[in-house]
Amino acid sequence: MNLFDLSGKTALVTGARKGIGFAMAQILAEQGADIIAVSSKQTPGDELSLIVRGYGRSFEGIAADLRIRNQTKDLISGLKGRKIDILINNAGIANRAEVLDHSDEQWDETLEIDLTAPFLLSREIARGMAERGRGKIIFTASMWTFLGGKNVISYTAAKSALGGLVRGLSNELVPLGIQVNGIAPGFIETDINDRVRKDKARFEFLTSRIPIGRWGKPEDLAGVTLFLSSKASDYVSGVVIPVDGGYLAN
Q1: What sign has the CA pseudo-torsion 28, 33, 39, 43?
Q2: Is residue 248 assigned to a domain?
């Protein structure tokens, strides 16, 4: 038995157009899953679609800005009745500002996409999973699920809450055959970290704190994503797994 075979499965990945979400969708397609990719600028014929179809899998690209509640609701409505076996709540933003300058708008925007949209998607898609008696729900958390961060107070609050969401959803859904887990990337070379990477002193300081000696790449998240999406993790639920080059242990 191939514990990692996803043939016949359909995965919905938010924030899939680039970065971590792109790598997650790619590994799932490589192992046999059909992909529904969601992003604010997702298109049916983008690079990811070519890769997924190259593996012989089907691809559907849906444009939805999860910062906007009505677009999240429209997405959910459009997915009603669809068989989704794997849900990866990956889309997110980090509004950077010192706490005394962190606006209400920045707070609301961050929590909407980083926390509320993942909850709404999970609640609604879990209904179909529960009817079938199986499913996988995965959240992209963060180092700031465990730590305080700096100048990202709304992001830290949202990602900390995701840890609680993982545990709470797991308690209610795992008896229904649905495993709920999270992945906490460390410092990864993605757009969300561009500002930090361009600050040479900050970049060098953070790199010095990573025992493996380098920042991660999106593909470094592929292995744990596949594990949590497959039968290999059927007895794993309610945890957030760091993929951080040893950062939290340092």
Answers
A1: positive
A2: no
Residue pointed to by tokens 């609604």: 124
In the chain, the percentage of residues whose pLDDT exceeds 70 is: 100
Is 246 part of a structural domain of the chain? no
> If DSSP states are collapsed to H, E and C, what string results for 43-83?
CCCCHHHHHHHHCCCCEEEEECCCCCHHHHHHHHHHHCCCC
Domain count for the chain, please give it.
1
What is the pTM assigned to this prediction? 0.96
Q: What is the CATH number of the domain that holds 62?
A: 3.40.50.720
Pick from 112-121, 203-212, 215-224: least confident: 203-212
Has residue 249 been placed in a domain?
no
Catalytic sites, residue numbers: 155
Range of the domain at 174: 10-241
Asked if residue 38 belongs to a domain, the reply is yes
Partners of 61 in the beta sheet?
A: 37
Chain centroid to CA 36:
14
* Spatial contact of 209 and 250, defined as CB atoms under 8 Å apart: yes
Closest CA to 141 of 178, 166, 171, 169: 166
Better-scored residue on pLDDT, 205 or 50: 50
